[in-house]
Amino acid sequence: MSTKEKTFEEVLLQEEVLTQNEIVLHNDDVNTFDHVINTLIYACEHTAEQAEQCALLVHYKGKCTVKTGVYDELKPRCSMLLEAGLSAEIV
User: In what order do the strands lie in the sheet with 21-26?
Assistant: First the structure.
């Protein structure tokens, strides 16, 4: 008779959990497309094409996520959007 020995290894994995927040831009009846696009280029470092697509989504859908990341990096960007007269929030 042979004896089979089973060896179990415990592997401990340490995960770093990063909470991703989003800046959500909301539609309004005040700001022009050009103002929204220019502000997204400035505050969120969007390309002109990205900013235009976001502006269209906000217009037709009512809101759009314009930037994701950790809260501390999004807070100053969201403040720039608000100071420019846009309606935005971090979720």
Answer: 63-69, 21-26, 87-90
DSSP 44-77: H---HHHHHHHHHHHHHHSEEEEEEE-HHHHHHH
pTM of the model: 0.80
Tell me if 27 sits within 8 A of 59, measured CB to CB.
yes
> What SS3 class is residue 33?
helix
Backbone angles phi, psi at 81, to 5 degrees: -65, -45
Q: What is the pLDDT of residues 6-18, one digit of tens each?
A: 666 666 676 666 6
Rounded distance, CA 66 to CA 88, Å?
9
Cβ proximity of 63 and 26 under 8 Å: yes
- In whole angstroms, give the CA distance from residue 61 to residue 8: 53
| Residue 74 φ/ψ, nearest 5 degrees | -85, -30
